[in-house]
Each structure stands twice: as structure tokens, then as C-alpha cells.
Design goal:
mainly alpha; 2 helices; elongated
């Protein structure tokens, strides 16, 4: 954990004192995850396409809604 490595430096450097706040560490973890996903996302997508991994889409898609009048409430709003 970076906290255990960096927090002892707060006695020598002014900026490392902010590491004791859990909110700051949570925000930094979220920003690090976002940066990592934005950096590695396109690389992984290209690699998956090269390996022909993906989702197959059916040619015939069933109709999402049945015909009108077959609903339990017959289109009336209650």
C-alpha cells in the first residue's frame, strides 16, 4: 500500500501530510483507476479484436414488444 510507503515522508516534505485523510486517498484511487482504464482500454480492445474475442450478434432479433392490445392493461393508464 502506497500509504505505508509515503506517509512517513510527511515529516520531511510538507505535501505528504494530506495522505492521512481517507477522503483524499479514496479520490486519488478513483482517479488512478480512471487514468488506468483510459490508458489501457484502447490497447485491450485492439488486442481482443486481434484475437477475435467479442460478442456475437444474432441475425434474427425477436421483436421487443408484442402487438398492441395484448398488454394486461390494454393501453389504459391507471
Amino acid at each position: 500500500m502506497l500509504y505505508l510507503l509515503l506517509y512517513p515522508l510527511h515529516t520531511h516534505y510538507v505535501g505528504f501530510g494530506v495522505l492521512r485523510y481517507e477522503t483524499f486517498r479514496s479520490v486519488m484511487a478513483g482517479l488512478a483507476a480512471l487514468a488506468l482504464s483510459l490508458a489501457l482500454g484502447p490497447v485491450l480492445i485492439d488486442r481482443f479484436r486481434a484475437m477475435h474475442l467479442g460478442q456475437t450478434i444474432r441475425d434474427e432479433v425477436p421483436q421487443a414488444q408484442p402487438e398492441e392490445g395484448r398488454h394486461p392493461h390494454d393501453g389504459r393508464s391507471y
